[in-house]
């Protein structure tokens, strides 16, 4: 999560909630004697007769996942590249791929000019025509299929879980004919999560608040994949997904008094760089000196990119938060 995504998706969520319920399933259907791979995604059927050859990813998280699946050679454009750094090995593999945008999704003309046949995105926000982005319909008219991370589908944004990552790996593995590699990635990730489960099963379940700080503005996260990551790490969120403030969005702005009253044992917060981490730590220590989390110095910083829907970083975030809660 970053400032742009938190604010922009909040503004767009009302219109996006009209999209049909999502989920993903993969099946092979026979069409005219050929095999068409179809994936159910955000209420749409995505079908390909052959692995896509001109792919654009709209976040570094999706770039990393596709490179790990072994389809780096198909990438022809990268979006929102400055929202999080790529691991050095992944960055080296995509060093020659054109950058279409840095801080925001690419505008309509730039994306269409890249002539993709497949676009992969973390959320549906990236296709908001009112923001100047190419809509899913416009891309379809230009011959491009669109896959949105399962946890980033509009109607699932507040109920997404880490399990959605495996839906994405499975679905994209089928689309790109990399099913064996997809199975390997899923097995590796599940093994890491199982190790966390074993470590946390015998320990105390600490109360946690997941926060995002920008200046003096404080937001809390109570739903979505972000909240599920905390739960998978063994934390008990003091903000519940059934609270009215999370009825249509996974995050809500609150006053310091509200957070202080909940008095969590740990605070988890997303950051984009060291400067933001230091600024957030300063704010939390200054604003909440008597909070148990601050007194015990149980303040856990997590790269915001690891909290995006559909990223392998979800597993890394579970591991990091579990370690910070001990």
Written overview of the protein:
By secondary structure, the chain is α/β, with parallel strands linked by helices. It folds into two domains: 178 residues, Nitrogenase molybdenum iron protein domain (Rossmann fold); 122 residues, 3-Layer(aba) Sandwich (Rossmann fold), CATH 3.40.50. Helix content is 38%, strand content 19%. It has twelve helices and 13 strands. Strands 8, 9, 10, 11, 12 and 13 form a six-stranded mixed sheet that branches. The chain has a four-stranded parallel sheet with strand order 5-4-6-7. Strand 2 and strand 3 form a beta hairpin. Helix 6 packs antiparallel against helix 7 and helix 8 crosses helix 12. The radius of gyration is 20 Å and the shape is globular. The two termini are 24 Å apart. 47% of the residues are buried. It holds the Pfam family Peripla_BP_2. This is Iron ABC transporter substrate-binding component. Belongs to the bacterial solute-binding protein 8 family. InterPro entries: ABC_Transporter_SBP, ABC_transptr_periplasmic_BD. Keywords: Signal.
Question: Could you name the key traits of this structure?
Answer:
Iron ABC transporter substrate-binding component; Rossmann fold; ABC_Transporter_SBP; about 325 residues; alpha/beta; four-stranded parallel beta sheet; 13 strands; signal
Order of helices and strands: HEEEEHEHHEHEHHEEHEEHEHHEH
Which residues form runs of ≥5 with pLDDT under 50? 1-5, 7-33
Please state the structural category.
alpha/beta
Summed over residues and divided by their number, the pLDDT gives a mean of: 89
Tell me which CATH architecture of the largest domain applies here: 3-Layer(aba) Sandwich
What sort of overall outline do the alpha carbons produce when their principal axes are compared? globular
**How far apart lie the N and C ends?**
24 Å
CATH superfamily of the largest domain: Nitrogenase molybdenum iron protein domain
Report the total helices.
Answer: 12
Q: Please tell me the total number of domains.
A: 2
Number of separate strands: 13
């Amino acid at each position: 999560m970053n400032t742009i995504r938190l604010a922009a998706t909040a503004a767009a969520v009302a219109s996006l909630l009209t999209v049909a319920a999502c989920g993903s399933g993969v099946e092979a259907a026979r069409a005219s004697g050929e095999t068409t791979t179809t994936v159910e995604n955000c209420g749409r059927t995505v079908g390909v007769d052959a692995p896509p050859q001109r792919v654009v990813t709209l976040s570094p998280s999706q770039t990393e996942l596709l490179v790990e699946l072994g389809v780096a050679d198909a990438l022809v454009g990268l979006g929102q590249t400055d929202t999080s750094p790529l691991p050095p090995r992944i960055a080296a593999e995509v060093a020659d791929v054109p950058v279409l945008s840095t801080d925001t999704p690419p505008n309509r003309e730039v994306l269409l000019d890249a002539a993709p046949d497949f676009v992969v995105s973390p959320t549906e926000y990236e296709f908001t025509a009112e923001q100047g982005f190419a809509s899913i319909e416009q891309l379809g008219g230009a011959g491009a299929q669109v896959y949105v991370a399962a946890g980033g589908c509009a109607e699932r944004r507040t109920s997404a879980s880490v399990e959605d990552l495996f839906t994405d790996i499975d679905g994209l593995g089928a689309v790109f004919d990399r099913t064996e590699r997809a199975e390997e990635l899923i097995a590796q990730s599940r093994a890491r999560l199982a190790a966390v489960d074993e470590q946390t099963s015998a320990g105390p379940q600490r109360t946690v608040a997941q926060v995002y700080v920008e200046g003096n503005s404080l937001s809390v996260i109570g739903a979505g994949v972000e909240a599920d990551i905390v739960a998978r790490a063994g934390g008990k969120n003091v903000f519940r997904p059934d609270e009215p403030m999370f009825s249509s969005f996974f995050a809500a702005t609150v006053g310091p008094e509200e957070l202080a009253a909940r008095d969590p044992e740990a605070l988890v917060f997303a950051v984009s760089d060291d400067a933001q981490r230091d600024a957030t730590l300063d704010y939390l220590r200054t604003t909440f000196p008597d909070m148990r989390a601050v007194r015990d110095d149980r303040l856990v910083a997590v790269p915001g990119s690891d909290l995006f829907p559909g990223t392998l970083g979800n597993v890394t975030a579970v591991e990091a938060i579990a370690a910070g809660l001990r």
